[in-house]
Structures are given as C-alpha cells and as structure tokens.
Amino acid sequence: MKNKPTLYIVQGALIAAMYIVMTVLQYVLLPGTVSNEIQFRVSEVLTILALYTPAAIPGLTIGCVLANIFVGLGSYDLLFGPLATLIAALVMYAVRNVRLFKLPVLAALMPALFNGLLVGFEIDFFFNNNAQAFNFVDFLIMGGFVAIGEIAVLFVLGLPLSRVLELNGLDKRIFALKSNKQKI
C-alpha cells in the first residue's frame, strides 16, 4: 500500500477491530475478567503495537471505547478506560526506543501506570463509594489490582510479542510503509 494516510487508517481500524473482538470474546467466554476490579484483559496485549505505528493510538482508543460499550460498566467506563488507553499509547509511542535488554520494558509499564491511576480512581470513586467520597486506600487497592492485570498481560504476552515481531522483522514488514516500485 503506497498511500500513507490510507495505510494509517487501515492499520488503526484493524487494531480497533482486533481489540473489540478480543475483548468481547473474552467477556463472553470468561465473564468478569475484562471489567471487574481484578481484570486480565487479553486485548491489552495490542497496546504493544503503539511501539510500531502511531495508527495504534487512535485504533486502541476507539477499540477501547467500542469494546467498553459492550462489556463496560456504564458511561464512566466510556471515559476513564479509553482516556487511560489514549494516554498510555501516546507515552508508549514516545518512549518506544527506550530498551532494557532489547525489550521495551518502560513502554510496557505505561498501560499499568495510566490504567491503574484512571481506572483505579473510576472504580473507587464511582462504584465503590457511589461518587460520595474519595478513599485513598481503596484507590490504591483498586488501582493496584488494575495495574497488576495490565503488567501481567504486557509482560507475559506483550513483551514476547514485541520480541517476536522484531526478531522476525515483522515490525517493519507489517507496519512500515515501503514504496514497492512494481516493474511493468
């Protein structure tokens, strides 16, 4: 594909679609694992794609919004989860070249950090305390649970995925725009 804007849109749309399908499928097969305090949302492995294409940033955000419509906890979940995903993907893209033992460890921590903070706040304030009061200890517990799930997904699945993509050159073949001049 030679048209860079078209490639960007296609990549973002495919990432959004994969996020939605993975989240909804997990929600159907393993209820409670994608939207409770302790969650292990396997679709979050796709956040690792923000290392390879900026198209992943809107793709992940839109995918999170649409997935949360199906599996979320209501209107708050349509704001806090996608906002955390957006910020995490932006920061992941910004630090994509920072490596530890050839792995993007710092980038892989971003979904845990931002989902822990934002979704942890959402769960504590809006669901545990009915928007009446903020409890810092409960926030730390809820945010910690969310962060642990994110770390588990990104470190168990995401970092190996990034390594496989890079070792096999798939990161460049799949996400890089190359002008393949065809001979006539």
Question: Cα distance, first to last residue?
Answer: 17 Å
Give the helix proportion (percent range): 55-70%
Total count of domains: 1
CATH architecture: Orthogonal Bundle
Shape estimate: globular
Largest sheet geometry: none
User: What structural class results from the helix and strand content?
Assistant: mainly alpha
The chain-level mean pLDDT equals 88
What string gives the helices and strands in order? HHHHHH
CATH class: Mainly Alpha
Report strand %: under 5%
Can you tell me the residue ranges where pLDDT is under 50 for at least 5 consecutive residues? 179-184
Q: Number of helix segments?
A: 6
Per DSSP E runs of 2 or more residues, the count of β-strands stands at 0
CATH fold descriptor: Arp2/3 complex 21 kDa subunit ARPC3
Indicate the radius of gyration in whole angstroms.
17 Å
Question: How would you characterize the overall build of this protein?
Answer:
The protein has 184 residues and is mainly alpha-helical. The chain has one domain: Arp2/3 complex 21 kDa subunit ARPC3 (Orthogonal Bundle). It contains six helices and no strands.
Essential attributes:
mainly alpha, 184 residues
Write the layout of secondary structure elements.
Blueprint: H1 4-29, H2 56-71, H3 75-94, H4 105-128, H5 136-167, H6 170-175
